[in-house]
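Budget justification, computational time. The allocation requested in the original proposal was used primarily to generate structure tokens for proteins on the priority list. As evidence of use, we reproduce two of the resulting records. The first is shown immediately below.
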Amino acid sequence: MKIADFRKLALSFKGAIESSHMNHPDFRAGNKIFASLGQPDEAWAMVKLTPEQQSAMDQSDSEVFKPCNGAWGQRGYTNIYLPSAKKAIVKIVLQMAFENVSSK
């Protein structure tokens, strides 16, 4: 998956916008970040999952999905290795992340 593909998927949700935080692009529902690009580097993205969702994704494909470092990862923040990610799965994961922040 390319960065442009991730961006297009993230912006496909009703009301999703692109902004910037800590010098990298992020995607928001309302004013809450549900995904970002460039963390920890250009090959990676991040989504805000629940710890249970994160565990399921890590078990399904640990080469693509990895918990973020430290306390962020313990709270469900999950990195996605874009070069190995499949578009259909990333769309599902982005939908979960979008719903996680927009339901609050």
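The second record produced under the same allocation is shown here.
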Amino acid sequence: MPKPFRYLEPTFFAGLFDDPLLLVRVRPTGRSLLFDCGKMHHLAKRIYTSIDAIFISHAHMDHFMGMDSVIRHSHASPRTIEVFGPPGLAGRMANKFSSYDWNLAETFWGNFRVSEIEGERIASTLFSGPEAFAPRDEGKRGGELYRNRFLSVRSVECEHRIPVLSYRVDEADAFVVDDAKMAAEGVMKGEWLRTLERLFHTGTLAGSAVWYPARVGEAIEERTEPDAAALYRRITKEETPASIGYLTDIGYSEENMDKLVGLHQGVTLLICECAFLASECQKARLSRHLCTPDLNLLLDKLRPSYVLPMHFSKTYQRGSAPLYEEIEPPAGVTVLKIPDRLTPRPIMESEVPKPLELPSNNR
């Protein structure tokens, strides 16, 4: 597929029938965000050590059991991992920590900050590694869920007989100039653009003065712009930042659909559960999952550029072909396919036969 992302690199570490597991790598930093953590034993340790924040949709086992693996590979690292999820998540994390003995805790160990999303408020609890992961209430806050220089994350609460969160990741605006607009303004390229880009990334464009070369006829003159923000607006190339939508284990209802449209409309890549075929729509309704007609309705409303169906019911383990046959995307929407299953774990280097150890008929 084309790569519409400037900063983000999404990788879905699961097959169609496996526990959902989305890793979003932030290319400029090499760090990652993780969405849900069910069965995770097949991931390399370097994946765990790259994770800065984890976004849990809900605490059913196939979306949360891998948190023990995250703790195992991260607890002794001197950093704080942010964990977001629905109300009650901090209590569940407390139970995980309390199930182990931490009498050998070191002062350099890291922390886990667990933030429960309650409507417009976010309640945080810090589990401090040096204090044997004892919980400390940090109170509530408003504002954005999560943001850094390259992205922001939003969520909406839906219903699966329990609160379930759907998440959207948006890339931050990029510094891009339009050659045609620069030529029309007479603005010439040069080292000064590095200064303008630095002001852009530090959020200090407004009110900052910049000096730049401009062509006037055959002559070149030095100009001063007292407001770099105004200059950038005149020469910028307008682009819509790419985005990723993640939704799973959500029952069909008008209320849920309205919430999903409000969050995910126009998303670049939609990663969406599609648990049942149309023939078992009633089973989908009873278990509060989506079926193929529900996905088709969502695609018509959201109009993503790409959709990755996932989390297919294990009752269809004979094959995924019927699922893809029932997906009818509107024009402009590309359906991406993943394997039915992944191998249980990567093959280790020590397991690969050396050349001299190969059977004689393979030499």
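A brief technical remark on that second record: The chain has two domains: 8-173+240-335, 179-235.
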